[in-house]
Amino acid sequence: MKIIKDSVHDHIQVDGVARALLDTPAVQRLRHISQLGTVSLVYPSANHTRFEHSLGVYHLACEALERLGIEGRQAHRVHAAALLHDVGHGPFSHNLESLTYRRTGRYHDDVDDLLADGAVGDVLREHDLDPAAVAGLVAGEGRFGQLVSGELDVDRMDYLVRDAHHTGVPYGTIDHGRLVRELTFADGELVLDEGNVQTAESLLVARALMNPTVYSHSVARISKAMLRRATERLLEASEPDIDAATLQRMDDHDLIAALRSCAATSEFSRRLDQRDLFKRAVWAEMNDVPGGIIESDHGMIREFEREISDRAGVDPARVILDVPSRPSMTESTTRVMVNGEIRQLGQQSPLVEALRAAQFSQWRLGVYSPRELRDRVGRAAVDVLGLDIDGALVSEVRNGMDATLDQFVE
Amino acid sequence: MKIIKDSVHDHIQVDGVARALLDTPAVQRLRHISQLGTVSLVYPSANHTRFEHSLGVYHLACEALERLGIEGRQAHRVHAAALLHDVGHGPFSHNLESLTYRRTGRYHDDVDDLLADGAVGDVLREHDLDPAAVAGLVAGEGRFGQLVSGELDVDRMDYLVRDAHHTGVPYGTIDHGRLVRELTFADGELVLDEGNVQTAESLLVARALMNPTVYSHSVARISKAMLRRATERLLEASEPDIDAATLQRMDDHDLIAALRSCAATSEFSRRLDQRDLFKRAVWAEMNDVPGGIIESDHGMIREFEREISDRAGVDPARVILDVPSRPSMTESTTRVMVNGEIRQLGQQSPLVEALRAAQFSQWRLGVYSPRELRDRVGRAAVDVLGLDIDGALVSEVRNGMDATLDQFVE
Amino acid sequence: MKIIKDSVHDHIQVDGVARALLDTPAVQRLRHISQLGTVSLVYPSANHTRFEHSLGVYHLACEALERLGIEGRQAHRVHAAALLHDVGHGPFSHNLESLTYRRTGRYHDDVDDLLADGAVGDVLREHDLDPAAVAGLVAGEGRFGQLVSGELDVDRMDYLVRDAHHTGVPYGTIDHGRLVRELTFADGELVLDEGNVQTAESLLVARALMNPTVYSHSVARISKAMLRRATERLLEASEPDIDAATLQRMDDHDLIAALRSCAATSEFSRRLDQRDLFKRAVWAEMNDVPGGIIESDHGMIREFEREISDRAGVDPARVILDVPSRPSMTESTTRVMVNGEIRQLGQQSPLVEALRAAQFSQWRLGVYSPRELRDRVGRAAVDVLGLDIDGALVSEVRNGMDATLDQFVE
Amino acid sequence: MKIIKDSVHDHIQVDGVARALLDTPAVQRLRHISQLGTVSLVYPSANHTRFEHSLGVYHLACEALERLGIEGRQAHRVHAAALLHDVGHGPFSHNLESLTYRRTGRYHDDVDDLLADGAVGDVLREHDLDPAAVAGLVAGEGRFGQLVSGELDVDRMDYLVRDAHHTGVPYGTIDHGRLVRELTFADGELVLDEGNVQTAESLLVARALMNPTVYSHSVARISKAMLRRATERLLEASEPDIDAATLQRMDDHDLIAALRSCAATSEFSRRLDQRDLFKRAVWAEMNDVPGGIIESDHGMIREFEREISDRAGVDPARVILDVPSRPSMTESTTRVMVNGEIRQLGQQSPLVEALRAAQFSQWRLGVYSPRELRDRVGRAAVDVLGLDIDGALVSEVRNGMDATLDQFVE
């Protein structure tokens, strides 16, 4: 048994299969993957890693299982899945996931191979656990998969509180103790017990407030887009030495070092290192963006970028078009017991619809460029994309407002 | 200058007129008025007082004024109003306010006399401040009154954080530092500066989540209703020795002692002291309550209670009907700058409408009685009030659910 | 089972005998006994009660027993003792303990009668527990008594953290999680396991820093002395209606109301209510106090006071002599495993001796009087007690320093 | 003006010269230097960086200067020094400082060149500040240098609280608000004002408790020694490409990448990455170590290591001898006002001597090796160094105790 001191959950006790997994390279590697990637360029204290988060998820899973009365092999499988649920992450966690997915067809929770091979596979089998079953839990499959990856999973409970602790933004401070205590199974589904509509809403609201303030803060988005672009160039310049699969197994240090030493990416790398970031040339609400653009695939976006840089007469490397996908709200299907029957939160709470609407109103298409080109690039982007010019352009004319928007960023 | 250590804001520096007001009996009295009244019967750590809250409000007012660049007499007036804003409270703060209002016609923020008389009046005049002007600020009048009592007042910012700290319920943990920093004046109105729709929403959400979980928790409501009923009986039994005006100037100790020693109230008092509370016989949603009942005035409610006790064949002192007023949401008029214009939060944010709807869905009419009479009283109340019996009754049949509802209470 | 939300330990789960004891009048009464008495006149947020502290002690006891592998009847006895350990406290906890002890011969942990009688006795017997055995644990007897009342008891662990939380003074923030985890039994003694000299020292240091900053802050001492004096006068004026045994069963509200309504104490009561406190006329280090004075019993102290007031020509009610007893340091016998053998902390750690010396250097004899009499009373006291005048006198000449000393008080 | 959200101090406002310095590469580089180096191998949440710490130090310096009434150029110089005080750090902060000092003759606070050159020099001169004067403050020179680097500096106040927040170990939670408020100048010296012996002691105690628990935890020491050894080998293998000056300007990513890719260090690097650390073969108290060994210079230590490995018959790369220098306690000269005169804390407080003694009793000489060689290496080291064998050897025989010692490590 090992006791680990954690800044969020205080003491975490690690036993059994989790104790053995802790010492595997795959888990230790998570010490070098930052939890929030470029968010630390906005909130400088946000340097926590996937390692401590994984410990936290394991800890909450243990508590939940104890409440649910689950023991033995079934519990051990969930323990393993909780500790391993993020081993599939590449450097900078979600920041580069769209890029690696495009090239490998795999998301971070597709971990069948990673759990079957090497030290992790050995440990699991020594503890009589089937790697494929554990990988299934990580992917959210089955009755207990909901606890690891679902609307009410312990992953979310840990990251909201942890991200609040490390950014200093209090919105994520949910009552995770209550959430874990009130979980129960009804008809094979993980639900919150009677009297917890409020509790479910609080989880929803925490994410809805953390999202624009932390996860999708404009500066975090800009730097993420720059990192993604730099990494694409790195792959183009370095293949086959560095391909997407190699990238996926790197950690933050590897990628940063690679970006610094590759001629094609050193300028992006310098900008990220020195926080000399691109600025918003365009920042457009959904209403100001013509239909279809939001559905653009990667190829179309690169094509738009080329057109914009052509029209603006600037180097294509100086223009980034950032089109977030249509907002979704998985929490709407969170199940809560109300007067003895299972209800979906979306049926029960008017907040779900409101928060969905809020997400749509917060959605922004961004076009980024170096500060000195912002004006030219902005006008070109408005033309090429057919945006509403009044709503979209972040020009010098509107510097005043922009300064204000920038005030709460580091 | 005095430095006071506070568990919420750490060090509070008290200067000038505030320093002199601190030593007045009217302000020191607030040490003996609990902030949340009977909520401590649900959350046992919630024993904080109006005194420390008043210091916190003063502290945030100082910070806000500094940010707004307000100095001199204007600032001192606000300092005084912030520290004095709660001196009009009677014992148990809001718990008995409807009762004293009915008999005196005054709410707690009607403090003209209190500020003009005695030591407080002397201190204000010595510092060249007009008591009437300070009382005006407490009542929310004028440009700076909004800071003391309005949608964006520092009162709310302090109590949400403080109540969260003392109850242990994290929902009230707003980012008060940011709120105070982002206040500005536009067209004479106190507004949140550009880029703060989110910030305004977070204030709204905090209150919306604290409300059912803390302020209107069913056990807090039951005990408040019992306290109110006991105090009414005390007045009836003790007038003219104790009348509403006397009551209003008591503190918690005075009232508790009076209730204990008065024969007419000693049973209520024993129940409150020993937390041997009435239970819900009826707990009805708005839809299950016939039109008109929600508008009942005090006389009608007493009349309903008599009818219910008659029909149930129990002592009228054993039945309490508790009809909250129709929910309102003052925060909907919070003003936020959006793209250079002042907007009301209700126009801008879909959350406002959703939270309003949530308030309506959380509204409950309650009928309370001793546990052993719950069944008889509940059936009688359903008949007398014409409630929908399936939705309203909290009978033995539904004990299971009720137990669950009670689980998270102390 | 009941879940109670606590501002310090978050969720406290109350089961079995503790659940039944919770609803007894003796335990509910603790809601009305403040934990720190007059300390709230220095730290205004310190309004926590013996009730929430008792829940916290119960919670830590459960955790410790679980770690120690103790179950069944033995554990239930400790659960009961933990929850009941403070039911013997009178109003304002320790503030009046010397007074009631003098008249009743009982300290607050002498609870044989209280546990045998009434609802508490009934509950214990219903759960097959012997009230006398539980009272023995409260008095620190036997193997498990050490856990409830000893050098390593959970009482201390809870109050240090709780008092830190509520005063805002961080010095008490010990690592109670680690302390509870590292407890073990060796040769029938409760010890801290190998590798925890540091952990034991931290507990010692926390108390050593909290002591002068919080528990023995000069303003807390002055107001406590005033309260004690007022209560003595109340007993003298009201016996046999209010005798020491009656007093002991009062709560804070009862005593405050009694002091307010008794002519002989109303002036003290007004001063305490309005924080119009006596000031230090003398504040003398141990070296400046002639031998023997520190050993004075109550009669001698009253005699000194009369002599001082005579010599100063002031009303005897205006002079209070406050002579703390010689410091002790029970933690020095805390047992810690070092290289496989049990050692006393005092043998192992040089800190123990240093903190004992610090306690002696912080010891102060105080003479208190109304501010305007401070000079006359101070000089008279110096003469009567034979103090070193330069060290002891807090005269107008030294007002500057005194003001500084007062700065960090509310 | 920029507002930065910090997890420790909440909002930090950055103005003037600090605002301009923030964007320089030298300051942004600190984002990539971990504050506590290998301590994160013990406390996994301790991933904070020199960047956020520097902001915190700047913040506290601003508060202290405001209290001291210092404005204008003088203040700006201190602001700049506070933000820049750590730009001289190499990768992993103090972990490698002895190594780089040996080769460059410079400690991290020797920053004359760094402040005179490049963007930092430009910014300072643009703001009319002399880089040499700012560098002098960083080195602790002059009246205000004490605030940046001295017994009462804001550096220490920030790091204690910050390290406590991120490790979860509460011992560092000092009352920095009070410390900053109570600073004053007397006879040109920075002192704590009257009534703050306790406050000074609390700072001392915090460091004394954090030291063995965090900064010198055995696992942190082992991993630091491994990192140092690896880096030495890197320099030996890579010079002149990577020399000590180059190393000093690297950040954590650069060094980690270099260690991974260099054949001579890849095994150490793998061990550090996977936390497959050396174990203690010897762990000897000062009394068990012959005179003179503690004074050994680097050459002598390497010679001892060679002798030990020879005698044990193992590869010299498998033996590390770690001899900490003799403990010192700079805080003993902290100045505090007592009764109107400046006293050194060491004269006033018995704690200083006790903590000094505690440091000596906690001192340990370590010999580290791979687990499987521990026994052979331990016996060889006892012989070569002439240690007392009973006290020093951490052999298999004593595994039980060792396991316990290891329990609280991650």
From TrEMBL, chains A, B, C, D:
UniProt keyword list: Hydrolase
Pfam families cross-referenced by the UniProt entry: HD, HD_assoc_2
Molecular function terms from GO: dGTPase activity
InterPro entries for this protein: dGTPase-like, HD/PDEase_dom, HD_assoc_2, HD_domain
Domain HD/PDEase: 46-169
GO biological process: dGTP catabolic process
Protein name: Metal-dependent phosphohydrolase HD sub domain protein
Naturally occurring in which organism (per UniProt): Natrinema gari JCM 14663
